[in-house]
Write a structure and sequence with these properties.
Radius of gyration: 20 Å
Largest sheet: 7 strands, mixed
Strand content: 15-25%
Oligomer: single chain
Shape: globular
Distance between the termini: 26 Å
Number of helices: 10
Structural class: alpha+beta
Helix content: 25-40%
Length: 323
C-alpha cells in the first residue's frame, strides 16, 4: 500500500550553521574551523511548485536580497536539488535568520548556505552526503563573494578543523583538534568586502616566500596532530595575505602586537576580515586577550564585539518538524 501524501502545508524544519574562522595564518583558502558561538538559522518547508523561494529574512537590517538567484541560501539549495536530479519536481520555501554580521570574515554567507541545505534536505526527505553539501554550498559562495572557495563552508558542514586538500575533485580532510585550544574572536565595528579583500592580494609572490609559507602550513598540520599549541602558534604566520589586507582593518596591527605581547600563541585575520582571532591555551587567557583586542580596536575608533570560544561542531538540524 502506498503511503498517503502529507497534508499541505508541509511542516517546517529548522537548521543552524556556525560561524567559521578561515585561513588560519598560512592556510589561505585551504584551512578553516567551526566555532560553537553564534551562527545562522534557516527554516525550510516543502512547497507545491518546483523551485526555491526565500520569503523572509531577519537580522540583516534589510540588506540581503530575497531573489532566488542572488541569495546564497537559495543558490546553494537550488544547486543541491539540481545535483540530486529533482529540481524540476521538488520545491522548497526558506526563511533565514541572520545571526552573523555581514562582511565580517566569519563565514556569514557560507553559514546561510549550509543552514539552508540542512533544513531543505530535512524538509524534502533528501539524503545528501557531506561532499555534495559542500559542493552545493560552494555554489552559494560563488554568488556571494565571486569565488566558490570551500574553506568556510567545509568546516560549517563538517565541524572541527578542516584542510581543503583539493577542489577538483573536492577532497576535505578533518584534522585533530587540541582540547585545550581556545580562541578570542573579535569583530571590529567596520566592514571589509570580500571582493575588495581579494582585489588587494598580490598577483605574484616570490619563490622564497612561497617555500616559507608552505613550510608553515605543514608545521601547522603537524602541530595539530601532536597537540603542540606552542608549535601551532609558531606556524600561524602569514607573510603573503595578511600584510596585503592589514591596512583594510583600522587598528589591526596594534591589536596584533598587543595580543602577542600579552602572551597570545598567535593572532591573525579571519578570512577576508575584519574579524581577527588570537589563540590561547586556556579560557582565562583567551578572556584576557579578548579584552586586549577590544581595547585596541576601541582606541582605533572601531569598537565591535567578540567572544571566547572553542572549535565546535558543524551544521545540524535544530528541531523536529514544526507545524
Amino acid at each position: 500500500m502506498s503511503e498517503a501524501p502529507r497534508p499541505w502545508p508541509h511542516p517546517w524544519v529548522e537548521a543552524y550553521a556556525p560561524a567559521t574562522v578561515s585561513n588560519l595564518g598560512p592556510g589561505f583558502d585551504c584551512l578553516g574551523l567551526a566555532v560553537h558561538g553564534p551562527g545562522d538559522v534557516v527554516r525550510a518547508r516543502r512547497r507545491r511548485e518546483p523551485g526555491v523561494v526565500l520569503t523572509k529574512i531577519t537580522g540583516d537590517g534589510g540588506r540581503l536580497p530575497l531573489a532566488a538567484d542572488q541569495n546564497t541560501a537559495c543558490v546553494a539549495v537550488a544547486a543541491m536539488l539540481a545535483r540530486a536530479g529533482v529540481a524540476d519536481t521538488l520545491g522548497v520555501e526558506l526563511e533565514l535568520d541572520k545571526g552573523l554580521p555581514l562582511g565580517s570574515g566569519l563565514g556569514s554567507s557560507g553559514a546561510s548556505a549550509c543552514a539552508a541545505l540542512l533544513a531543505a534536505a530535512g524538509a524534502l526527505d533528501l539524503h545528501v552526503g557531506n561532499d555534495a553539501m559542500i559542493e552545493a554550498a560552494r555554489a552559494g559562495e560563488a554568488v556571494a563573494c565571486g569565488s566558490p572557495h570551500p574553506d568556510n563552508v567545509a568546516p560549517a558542514i563538517l565541524g572541527g578543523i578542516v584542510l581543503i586538500a583539493a577542489t577538483e575533485p573536492l577532497r576535505v580532510v578533518s584534522l585533530p583538534v587540541p582540547e585545550d585550544l581556545w580562541l578570542a574572536i573579535y569583530t571590529p565595528g567596520c566592514e571589509v568586502e570580500t571582493a575588495k579583500a581579494r582585489a588587494v592580494l598580490p598577483r605574484q609572490v616570490g619563490l622564497d616566500a612561497t617555500v616559507r609559507q608552505s613550510a608553515r602550513l605543514a608545521l601547522l598540520v603537524h602541530a595539530l596532530h601532536i597537540g603542540d599549541l606552542a608549535l601551532l602558534g609558531e606556524a600561524i604566520v602569514d607573510e603573503l595575505v595578511e600584510p596585503a589586507r592589514a591596512h583594510l582593518i583600522p587598528g589591526f596591527l596594534d591589536a596584533k602586537i598587543n595580543a602577542i605581547e600579552a602572551g597570545a600563541l598567535a593572532c591573525s585575520i579571519s578570512g577576508a576580515g575584519p574579524t581577527c582571532f588570537a589563540l590561547a591555551s586556556s579560557k582565562q587567557q583567551a578572556t584576557s586577550l579578548l579584552e586586549i583586542l577590544d581595547e585596541s580596536f576601541t582606541h582605533a575608533g572601531v569598537s565591535g564585539r567578540g567572544q571566547v570560544d572553542q572549535v565546535g561542531p558543524g551544521a545540524h538540524v535544530t528541531s523536529k518538524a514544526l507545524h
